[in-house]
Specification:
The structure is a single chain. The chain is elongated. The chain starts with a helix and ends with a helix. It is α+β, with helices and mostly antiparallel strands. The strands form two sheets. The chain has a six-stranded antiparallel sheet with strand order 3-6-7-8-9-10, with no helix packed on it. Strands 5-4-2-1-11 form a five-stranded antiparallel sheet, with no helix packed on it. The chain has two helices and eleven strands.
């Protein structure tokens, strides 16, 4: 096998390895919840988001991928996370949809979160928190359940990525072979 073809295959394998790494296929983290007064909903986020600097109130804000309540998707969902909040004397997470009046609030002991990274919320259950609150503009209650839903990556996305990279590799090999054939013939 010529050295240039081997080099091309090695670079292609490296590119495929990078594309197939876990960070390239970030799977959203999803939760479902129910409240004691019968509401249900879900929210999801990408825990690979960069962690912003905390504000002067020791709170960071993230955009959520989705937030729904009773089957209705809410616009402008955000998640605010506080690590060692001076005002609350606790760690807390607040989820709301700006302008909707809907809010989820999770309060925990000061030692629950060790950073402001969104991944700190991954795998949490109601037992991790000392208090929860669900509120709308007209009522307030607490959460009955909080369950992280197993996220499964979409197989079509992975298949399209691999198919596209394979096609690019084949194209490069063929174009490289065509370019080197006339020069080799001229050398004889």
């Amino acid at each position: 096998m010529p050295k240039s073809v081997f080099s091309l295959l090695r670079r292609t394998a490296f590119a495929v390895g990078i594309c197939l790494s876990t960070s390239a296929f970030a799977v959203p983290v999803s939760y479902e919840f129910t409240t004691v007064d019968g509401h249900y909903g879900s929210f999801s986020y990408n825990d690979a988001q960069l962690t912003p600097q905390p504000s002067s109130t020791q709170v960071v804000r993230y955009d959520l991928l989705s937030f729904s309540l009773d089957g209705v998707s809410l616009a402008n969902p955000i998640l605010q996370l506080s690590n060692n909040s001076f005002w609350e004397l606790a760690d807390f997470v607040q989820i709301n949809a700006l302008g909707s009046g809907v809010e989820l609030y999770f309060r925990a002991d000061l030692s629950l979160f060790s950073s402001y990274a969104l991944a700190e919320f991954n795998g949490r259950t109601l037992s991790d928190f000392i208090g929860t609150r669900f509120s709308t503009s007209s009522s307030s209650s607490s959460l009955a359940t909080l369950t992280q839903v197993a996220s499964i990556p979409e197989p079509g996305t992975s298949a399209l990525m691999v198919l596209g990279l394979s096609a690019l590799t084949l194209y490069r090999i063929r174009s490289h072979t065509r370019r080197s054939t006339p020069s080799e013939a001229a050398a004889y």
